[in-house]
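Title: Prediction job returns without error message
Component: structure pipeline
Severity: low
Priority: P3
Assignee: unassigned

Description:
Job completed but the reporter wants confirmation the result is attached to the right record. Sequence as submitted:
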Amino acid sequence: MRTPKTLSSNRSAGFTLIELLVGSSIMLIAVLGALFVYARSNKVSVEQQMVTEVQNDVRSSMFFLTRDLRMAGAGLPAEFAGYFLEGLDNDPLAAGEVAPDRVRLMGNLEDPLNVPIRNYQGSSVTLDIEDFSFEQYSYPDAFYDNKFVIILPNPESGCRLAEVRVITHVTHNTGGATEKFNFSPGLAPGVDPPGGLSGTCASPNDYDGGMISFINVKEYWLDVTGNYPGLTAGVNGYIGGGEGGVLYVTNNGIHFPLARNIENFQVEYCGDMDSNLLLDGWTPWQNAWTLDQIARIQHVRMWVLGRTAQAFTSVGGTPPGAIHVYRRPALSNSPAAAADDHRKRFLLESTSNVRNMSLNLYNLGQR
C-alpha cells in the first residue's frame, strides 16, 4: 500500500528563498545595529579616556607647581629673598599661537643642609667648615658626592654673588675635626639662580661666615611646539622632536617632562611692592621690579590649561559660540582663541603662599 503525501512532509525539504531573504535581512539589521552601538560606545570611551588623561596631567603638574613655589627660598638666608623667585611673562621664544609664562625658583628643597663657612677663597676647590658640622646630619660621606650646593657670602659683607658647585667628596678627621667640602675646578654648568645671583665675590673674605646649602634651581616652562630654540632633542632630558604641549620642570640644568597635553601656563604675583602695608593685587611678572620688591612677593597664582590630544568627533553640530567649551579661554594677559576647535579643555587655578617670603603676612598688610 502507498502512503499518501502530506503537506508537512513536503515542507520538511527546506526554506523557501523568500524566507531566507527575510531572515538574512533581519540578521543583517541586528548585526549592523550591534556594530553601530559598539562603534558609538567605543568612540565615547576613547574620548572620555582623553579627558581623563588631560585631567590627570593638569592635576599632577599643579601639585608639583604649588609645592615648589610654596617652598621657594627654603633653608636660605632672608637677606637673599630677592633671589628666591623670578618670572618671565609671555615667553617670546615659545614660537606658537600661545605665549606661556615661565617661573624660576630656588631653595634648599629636597635634602636639608645649612652649614656655616669658616674659610673659602672663592672659586677654590676646597671649602672649610666648622668642626662637627657634618655630625649635625645623618648623611654618610658618600651621600655628598655629586650633589649641587650653593655657596652664599656673609650677608653682612654686602656682596650678593653666589657660586653653584658640584661636590666631588667631603673629608674630615675621625671625631669631626678639619671638615671640608671638595669640588672640581669650575662652577656647575647650566645652573643659573634667579636674579643673576651667580658669580664670585671680589674679596675672598666675603664668604667667611657665609653658608653652604644643597640647592635646587627649578624652572617651570611650557614647550608649545616641541622645537624650543637652543635645546636639542634627547639632550639633558629634553624630548623635542616636534612633540609640543609638554610642561617641563628644569632642575639644576636637567629637563624633566612633567605633563603632556598642556596648552597654556600663566602666572601672576601679589605682594606689597610699594611698601604701603597693603597688598597691591595680582599682576603678571614685571621686569622693572627691583630685588627689594621681589622679596615682598607673598602669593603666586597659577593657571594650567589642558587640551585633549584630538578633536571630539562625537560633537553634534556646532558648539554655541557663547559657551566656548571647545575654545581656548583667556588667562591672565594671554588672549583667547578666535574659533572653536572641538577639543575639550580642563583648567585648574591655584594660589600658593610663598612661605619663606610671607612669614610676616599678617603684619604687612591686607587685601
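Comment from assignee: result matches the submitted record. Residues 50-107+216-367 form one domain.
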